[in-house]
Amino acid sequence: MSLTDIQTTTNSTATQTKTIHSTDKDTTTMNPADPQTSATQSPVDSAAIEDRFISAFKRREGAIAAVPADALQSLNLDVPTVYTTIVGAVPHLQSLRSDLTKSLPGFDLSLIDGLVDDALALGSAHARWKIATEMGASLPEMMAEATRQRDRLYLHAQALVDVGLFQQSSLDEIKRTGSYRGVAFEVISLVQLFSDGWARVSAKTAITSADVLAGSDAADRLTAAVAERDAQPKASAAAAVTRQKAFTLLAQHYDRVRQAVSFLRWNEGDADVIAPSLYAGRGNGNHKSNKAAEPAQPGGAVAPPASPTTPIMPATHTVDPKALADAGLPGASPYLS
What is the domain partition of the chain in residue ranges? Predict the structure, then answer.
C-alpha cells in the first residue's frame, strides 16, 4: 500500500466521521441569540476588508513604483496610526471642497479624493512587508514537530527491524541530524519506508496511517518554511522599499492638502484640527534644552552697560624732548625712548 492509498483510507474514515457529526448538528436548533451562533454570522467580512487594501494597492501600484529613490521619506511612524489619521481627516477635508475651489482655484481636489486609496495602499504594502520579514519565524516550532515525528517513526521502524520486517540498512541512512533540511528529508525517508511496507507492517506496529500522513505533512511544511527563509532577505528588502515608496506618495499628497487647508483656515487657526500632522504628538525628544531667550519688548528701556570693577586709567609715558628732536637724524635711534 502506497502513501496515496494510506491517505485515501484516512480521508474515507474522516469523511464518514464528518457525516455523522454533520447529522448530529442538523438535529440541533440554531438560536440566533446564542453568542456562538452570532459569531459565525458576523456581518464583518474580513475577505472584503482585505480586498479593499489589495485593490487600492493595485490602483496605486504604478504611482508607488514611480516614486524616485532620492525622494523617499523616512518611515519612522506607526503605519496603522497613519492610516487612521488619514481616514479620519478625509470627511472634514471633503467638507471644504467648495471653499478650496473658491479660494484656491488651481488646487487639485483629486488629492483629497485619493487620500483613502493612498492610505489603503500603504496598509497593503505594510502587511506585505510584515509577512516578508516574518518568513521563517515559525521554523523552530516546525523543526520541533518534524523532529518529534522523525524520532517516533524511527523508534517504531527500529522495532520492526528487530522482528525482521524492515532492513537495518534502511535505517542506517537516517543519521538523525539537527539541521532543518536534514530533519525534513529524514522524515520523508521514514514516511517512504512505512508507505512502501505498509501492507506487511500495518498490523504489527502502533504507527497508524494518520501518523504516517502527519509525518509527511510535517516534512512538507518544514521544507517549505526553509525555502521561504532562504528567500527572505531579498523579499523583505523589496517589500521595505515598496512600503517606503507608498508612504512617501501618501505623505507628499497629504502635505499638499495640509498646505491648502492651512492657507484656507489661517484666520480660524484650526488647520491642524481638520488635517492633523502625521507627526503630531511626537515632539523632538529634547526635554533638557534651555528655555529660549524672550524677545525684546518694543519701546522698552535699554539697560546701561555694566561698570567695570576695576577703573580704567589712561596710560602715562614720558618722552624725552631731546630724543624727540633727534629721532630720525643720521646716527640717532629711530625709536622714541
Answer: 53-136+243-274, 138-231
What is d(CA 84, CA 173) in angstroms, rounded to the nearest whole number? 57
**What ranges in 104-208 are assigned the alpha helix state H?**
110-113, 115-133, 139-162, 168-172, 180-196, 198-201
pLDDT tier for residue 139 given thresholds of 50, 70 and 90: confident
Q: What is the pLDDT of residues 128-138, one digit of tens each?
A: 898 887 766 67
| pLDDT mean across residues, the chain | 78
Map grid coordinates 531667550 to a residue: 293
Contact (CB, 8 A) for 105 and 98: no
State the amino acid at position 127 in one-letter form: A
What percentage of the chain has pLDDT greater than the value 70?
Answer: 68
Which DSSP string do the residues of 293-324 spell out, in sequence order?
PPPPPTTPPPPPPPPPSSPPPPP-----HHHH
pLDDT of residue 13: 45
CB burial class (10 A; 0-12, 13-18, 19+) of residue 112? buried
DSSP 3-state of 131: helix
**How many angstroms separate the CA atoms of 114 and 99, rounded?**
19
Q: Which cell numbers in the block locate residue 271? A: 488647520
Proportion of the chain above pLDDT 90, given as a percent: 53
pLDDT tens-digit series, residues 42-71: 444 566 666 889 999 999 999 999 999 999
* 152 touches 206 (CB < 8 A): no
Q: Which helix (H) or strand (E) holds 286?
A: none
Enter the pTM of the model.
0.53
User: CA end-to-end span of the chain, whole Å?
Assistant: 126
- Per-residue CA distances from 330 to 143, 324, 327, 333, 334 (Å): 107, 14, 9, 8, 9
Q: Which three cell numbers stand for residue 335?
A: 625709536
In sequence order, what E strands does 74-200 have?
none
CA nearest to 263, candidates 72, 102, 29: 102
Whether the CB-CB separation of 159 and 209 falls below 8 Å is answered with no
